[in-house]
Amino acid sequence: MSCSWLSEALNTLPIKESVRDDILMEAKLDSATEQETPLTSTDILVPVSLNQQENKTLQNWAHIESCKPKRYFEPETVEDIEVIVEQCRSNNWKLRVFGAGHSPNNIAMTNDCIVSLKRMNRIENIDEEQKTVTAQGGTLIKQLNQELAKHNLGLSSLGSISEQTIAGAISTGTHGTGINFSILGASVLELELFTASGKRLLCSETEHPDIFKAALCGLGCLGIILRVKIQCEKAFRLYAVQQPYSLDQVLEHLDDWLRSSEHWRFWWFPHTDRCVVWTAQRTNQSPTAVSSLSRISAWFKERLLGYHSLEAMLYLATFAPFMIPFINRLYFRLLFEEKKEKIDQSDKVFNFDCLFRQYVDEWSIPLRHTVEAMKRLRNLIETSGLYVHFPVEVRFTKADDIWLSPSYERESGWIGIIMYRPYSKDVPFQYYFRQFEQIMQSLDGRPHWAKPHGCNSTQLQKMYPRFSEFKQIRENLDPEHIFSNQYIDRILDG
Ligand SMILES: Cc1cc2nc3c(=O)[nH]c(=O)nc-3n(C[C@H](O)[C@H](O)[C@H](O)COP(=O)(O)OP(=O)(O)OC[C@H]3O[C@@H](n4cnc5c(N)ncnc54)[C@H](O)[C@@H]3O)c2cc1C
After folding, report:
1. Position in ligand 1 atom list of the atom nearest CA 170
2. Which InterPro entries match (predicted)?
């Protein structure tokens, strides 16, 4: 360490020369001792741009899962990533990329090394003619929505939120709803991976097509997704209608209903026979005009009633769970008994307020089993003495050819259940979720990769025809399993 800056600083202070010399001598001794301390391999060549932070604790959105990694990095360039991957390899550390932390389970967690791509979030190219966008892996979907709109483009289908990173959403099979619309990963045309051996691999239908089909739902264990190129469509508005029905009405003609509209889903309110059916269709009509009065009224209903008072009621119900059926009935009557219509830009219609912290579980099943699954779930809730929160959400996706997509080679119904954690208070959910999983498993179900489930690799192997091939690709790309954690070990090797 050079002491010249200290010497200069001391010269500016009104102190005696002998004192100044003593301080300088101390500093020199300290720096000599420092230089004798050998560097460890973990300290070598950590460029400033790696934005390394220590003692960082990361939590997921629901505050259910957390980790305290030894190293946390926010790289800015591919060269930074190269250094980080090399460090992990030489120290035998696991590495997980942490997207926006919205996965309800611990898929993104490790106590070794976490990499966040929040500084690698550039939209690199928008091709208006081909209707494509190329963006870095850390780009948030909401950034894409905003930028694409400026170029008169939009993403064809979205999930309930747009807070996820594009790479995180793709890696777990994130989906919206619409029987003619696939999971988000299916609209990816190209993807660039940084692998454990330090290689950059551009994958597409024509280049490394097997790796491409594996990485489109790669669970974060094939490498770091540096960038993706996505097929978009011309920007569109959606006309959405939300209407109440009975569950039996919906189940009776489910197949006709879900094909009657581009995007279709329903929410069932357990302990009642009531459902809300939501449909959305592309339209050229102008957005719904919203007066100040209706804005205030919507705020009152959606925020005050639908959020704050609901959270308070559910909190009270943690002391008296028998209130839950009453709460479900009450809120259906207050908020969902009326027909609602809305026309707006697509992302504003696809996205919802998902309220407060929650436990969730979601499985996909072959479309033809959806009615049976709902009947069994209703029977479970009616006969088990369970008190469960609303809603049960049912969505649909088209079959695809992504190896680990829960919709792989089959039209799918997705059933999601929820138990809120009002004011972060824990609620019993394990028995409900376990019983739900048994129903879904018995109907050829596949769990959502980002949501808690109890399956191990032996069970998953039976669910996914290309499971072994996926594992082989992983062995080829990452033989030391750097891109792993406890969850990945269980689902791929357990
Ligand atoms: C309120 C809420 C609503 C949701 N709605 C839906 C929905 O409608 N439909 C649905 O299907 N899911 C939904 N989800 C789940 C969510 O879409 C997924 O969990 C998604 O993976 C979260 O993205 P993320 O950026 O937060 O990634 P994270 O949760 O941080 O990470 C997810 C996985 O992606 C990996 N990953 C992230 N970035 C990269 C990268 N650059 N390279 C390689 N791997 C990477 C991580 O390592 C991890 O394995 C919802 C979740 C919440 C909390």
Report:
1. 21
2. ALO_C, FAD-bd_PCMH, FAD-bd_PCMH-like_sf, FAD-bd_PCMH_sub1, FAD-bd_PCMH_sub2, FAD_lactone_oxidase-like, Oxid_FAD_bind_N, Sugar_lactone_oxidase
